[in-house]
Amino acid sequence: MDLTSQLTLMGGACDRASIVALRGRNEVDRALRVGTLVRTARGRYALPTSPEFVRRASAFAGVLSHRSAAQYYGWAQKALPRQPEITVPRDRRLSVAARKLVLPHWSDLPAEDVDGIVTSRERTLIDCMRNLPLDESVPIVDSAIRCDDFTSSALIALADSTRGRGRSRIRAVGSAATSKSANPFESVLRSQTMLVPGLRAVAQLPVQVPGTRRFLHPDLADERLGIAIEAEGFAWHGESAALTRDCRRYNALTQLGWRVIRFSWYQVMHDPAYVHETLLAAVACAHQHANVA
C-alpha cells in the first residue's frame, strides 16, 4: 500500500506523527516536496485531493463531526453545513478568525468515537440526534438506515444506550427513524408532523382500496384522523407519467374519504410555520367531523 492509499484510509488527513510512524520520515518529506502531501497547518497534512471540509478540519486539529461527519459518510440531509463542523479537545482555543472558517464543538472524544479524521458513525448519529433541530436530525438518521449503515433496531439500541444530556431527545429521534421516507424532503416533512399535537403520521402507510387488492401509499398518513400528507417536489414530478400517477392517488384517497394535504418543497424547507399551522387546522377539522378519542 502506498502513502496515498494509506492516508485515504485515514480519511485524507492526519498529523505528522501518525503518518511518519506508518511511512517513515523520508517518504513523508519526499511526498511533501513533490506535492503528494500538502501542509494544512503546523504538523498537519492532507492529500491535495481531499475535500475542503476535510482539509479545514485537519488545519485546526479537529475531527469532522455532526453535519460534516454525516456529509463524509454520504448520508443525505436537509442542507449541507455552510462551514465545516468539527469537534476539538476542550482545552483547545480557536481564534475569532478561525471560527469564521469552521463551526466548532468542544469535547474530549474517546478513541472509539473517532475514525481517522471523522467521528465514528455511532458518535455522529448521537451528536446529530442530541444537538441538531428535529428537521435536521431526522433526515440524517433516516438516510443512515436507507444506506444500510444501520437497521432501525440498531439505531434504537444505540439511542437507548446513551446517557446524560439530551437522552430523551435522542431516543425520540431514534425510535422515529425509518427507511420509508424516500428522501430528505419527505423526512423533513415527517419531522414537522412530529411537532403537531394529536397527529401520528406514518410514512408510506398502505391504504387498501375496498373490493380490490390495490393499495395506495401516501407519503405520510394518520389513519386514525383520515389525513394524508403529500410532499410535492418538482424533481419527483418531472415526468408527466409521475404526475398523472400521483393525481390518481390523490383522487382515489379523496374518494375514500381522506383529507389530502399537499406541501411544496419550498413550504417544507423554508416556511415551516405555514406547514405547522396547516397541519394544526387539519387535525382540528378532523376532530370536528369525527368522533376521535
Summarize the structure.
The chain is about 45% helix and about 15% strand. It is α+β, with helices and mostly antiparallel strands.
> What is the approximate shape?
elongated
Computed structural class = alpha+beta
Rg over CA atoms: 23 Å
Mean pLDDT: 89
- What's the count of strands? 14
Low-confidence stretches: none
Q: Work out the helicity level.
A: 40-55%
Strand arrangement in the largest pleated sheet: 9-12-13-14
SS field, number of helical segments: 14
**Proportion of residues in β-strands:** 15-25%
Pattern of helices and strands: HEHHEEHEHEHEEEHHHHHEEEEEHEHH
Write the layout of secondary structure elements.
Blueprint: H1 3-9, E1 13-15, H2 16-23, H3 25-34, E2 38-41, E3 44-46, H4 52-59, E4 63-64, H5 66-72, E5 85-88, H6 96-99, E6 103-106, E7 114-115, E8 118-119, H7 121-131, H8 134-146, H9 152-160, H10 167-176, H11 184-193, E9 202-203, E10 207-208, E11 215-216, E12 220-222, E13 227-232, H12 240-255, E14 259-264, H13 265-270, H14 272-289
Parallel strand pairs: 5-6, 13-14
Antiparallel strand pairs: 1-3, 2-3, 4-5, 7-8, 9-12, 10-11, 12-13
Helix pairs in contact: 2-3, 5-7, 7-8, 8-11, 9-10
Describe the 3D structure.
A hairpin with a 2-residue loop joins strand 2 and strand 3. Helix 7 (121-131) packs antiparallel against helix 8 (134-146), helix 8 crosses helix 11 and helix 9 (152-160) runs antiparallel to helix 10. This protein is 47% helix and 15% strand. It has helices at residues 3-9, 16-23, 25-34, 52-59, 66-72, 96-99, 121-131, 134-146, 152-160, 167-176, 184-193, 240-255, 265-270, 272-289, and strands at residues 13-15, 38-41, 44-46, 63-64, 85-88, 103-106, 114-115, 118-119, 202-203, 207-208, 215-216, 220-222, 227-232, 259-264. By secondary structure, the chain is of the alpha+beta class. The protein is elongated, with a radius of gyration of 23 Å. The protein contains 14 helices and 14 strands. The mean pLDDT is 89. The longest helix is centred in the last third of the chain and has 18 residues, at 272-289. The N and C termini lie far apart (65 Å). The protein has a four-stranded mixed β-sheet, with helices on both faces. It has a three-stranded antiparallel β-sheet with strand order 1-3-2. The chain has three domains: 1-50, no CATH class; 54-176, no CATH class; 184-289, VSR Endonuclease (Endonuclease, Chain A, 3-Layer(aba) Sandwich), CATH 3.40.960.10.
